[in-house]
Amino acid sequence: MKSCVISGISGQTGSYLCELLLSKGYKVYGIKRRSSSINTERIDHLFDHPNLELVYGDLADYSSLSSIIGDVKPDLFFNCGAMSHVKVSFGIPEYTMDVTGTGVIRVLEAIRKNSPSTRFLTASSSEMYGASPPPQNEDTKFHPCSPYAVAKVAGYYATINYREAYNMFAVNSVAFNHESPRRGETFVTRKVTIGATRIKLGLQNELYLGNLKSKRDWSHAADTAEAMYKIITADSADDYVISSGEMHSIEEFVEKVFSKLDLDYKKYVKFDPRLLRPTEVDALCGDSSKLRNALGWKPKYTFDMLIDEMIESDMKLATNEKLIKDNEKKI
Ligand code: NAP
Ligand code: GDP
């Protein structure tokens, strides 16, 4: 049976990759790190799957990575683990470099020493382009604007270096923003769909946001996971941009979500300067024609389908919350 290891399996994209690889008949080993509370909710629905096994490990801990890779000798390794929040990276830059940057080198070294035929993909990021204006593709110059982006650039080049130095199948997916109902609650899209649905049901009155003028290229994380699988199973090792090719401002996203709920966002959205970043990435819009032409990738989700799915899911959560609150009042 073919096997794969996913770091960051408890995260948004790792959870979609897990579903995808299980559906393709792989034995999936997921690396989770020790936490004082249970944080596997994105993969809890797969818990009883006979081909899923969770193992403890940490990108900051070479010995755990080396043991896992040495024991499993997987066909594929997806490196989705990271300290993935741009704003947070300004507060913990050294830790971010350790986990998000050096973590890539730890996995590459563990593969080189224990299982050199394992194919490796790391989840690089459009944040690496930073201040380089759109459209961005595989040839665009990097100009990282955060400790997170600097760490991703380090991981990107480490991956190419291992490919060139040791002839390993080591590749980068350079994904633009991807979202879903499983997106972390402190990223802007999810913050907005949670906030707007709660406002709709009277559970909150205001939503505090930062810069609404920046622009992003948003895909669905399930489409991104499909693309990652195509990239790691391609005939030859290469790096690819994954993107929708559509760019929208944060304000457009907010306006769309609120208007789908028949709300005027201007009445509820407030500005909090604490949410601004020391350096902002103004505009990201990916040109993924290399991936589309060479590997035949095409996203299934449109921008509207993505938003509708996120609203529907968060509306269910808000409805349950309201039911509990209403019942509490009756007791
Ligand atoms: P996410 O939801 O934040 O998930 C990050 C995952 O990394 C979580 O499973 C987390 O575990 C794990 N992790 C954090 N620190 C770790 C450590 N020290 N050792 C092992 N695992 C650790 O991120 P995502 O949206 O799924 O993104 C997946 C990957 O793609 C990340 O590398 C991210 O930087 C990159 N990326 C994301 C986007 C995007 O728009 N989503 C765009 C480009 C690139 P816990 O659950 O324990 O926290
Ligand atoms: P990023 O592209 O990886 O930084 O993804 P985010 O979802 O964290 O941020 C996307 C954009 O939304 C950035 O330009 C942020 O400055 C902007 N933004 C505005 N308000 C907020 C907010 O309240 N939270 C977050 N996370 N981003 C915000």
Keywords for this structure?
alpha/beta; 13 strands; binds NADP nicotinamide-adenine-dinucleotide phosphate; binds guanosine-5'-diphosphate
Tell me about this structure.
The radius of gyration is 20 Å and the shape is globular. With 331 residues, it is α/β, with parallel strands linked by helices. The protein contains ten helices and 13 strands. The longest helix is centred in the last third of the chain and has 28 residues, at 303-330. The model has no long low-confidence stretch (mean pLDDT 98). The relative contact order is 0.13. It has a seven-stranded parallel β-sheet with strand order 3-2-1-4-5-6-11, sandwiched between helices. The chain has a two-stranded parallel sheet with strand order 7-10. Strands 8-13 form a two-stranded parallel sheet. It binds NADP nicotinamide-adenine-dinucleotide phosphate and guanosine-5'-diphosphate.
List the helices and strands and how they pair.
Blueprint: E1 3-7, H1 12-23, E2 27-32, E3 52-56, H2 62-72, E4 76-79, H3 86-91, H4 93-114, E5 119-125, H5 147-166, E6 170-175, E7 178-179, H6 188-200, E8 207-209, E9 215-216, E10 219-220, H7 221-232, E11 240-242, E12 248-249, H8 250-260, E13 269-271, H9 289-295, H10 303-330
Parallel strand pairs: 1-2, 1-4, 2-3, 4-5, 5-6, 6-11, 7-10, 8-13
Antiparallel strand pairs: 9-12
Helix pairs in contact: 1-7, 2-4, 4-5, 6-8, 6-10
